[in-house]
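Appendix B, record 7
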Amino acid sequence: MSTIRKQARQAPGGRAGTARRTHQVRKDGAYPTGPSPQTLEELRAAYQAHLAQLARERDEARREARRAKAEAAVARADLASLTARVDALLTAAAAHLPPQT
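C-alpha cells (predicted):
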C-alpha cells in the first residue's frame, strides 16, 4: 500500500478528500452563533486603540527621522565650513614658508 493511502486511512475522517467538520454542534443540537455583539464591540475598540497607538508611534518616528535629517544637514554644513577654514589656514601658512629648492 502506498504511503499516501496509508496516510489517508489514518487521517481523521477516514478518507482522503473528505472535508473535516470545522464547526461544533452544542449539546442542545444548535450551532453556535459566534461571539456576542458586546464581545465584538470590545474587540473593535481594542483594535481601534491599537491602530491609534501604532499611528502615534509612526508619527513620532517620522518626526524623529525629520529631526535627524535636519541635524545631519547642519553637521554637513559645519563640516564644509571647517574644511574651508582649514584650507584657508593651510594656504596662509604655505605663503609664509620659505620657497623649496
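Remarks on this record: The helical segments are 3-10, 37-95. The two ends are 99 Å apart (CA to CA).
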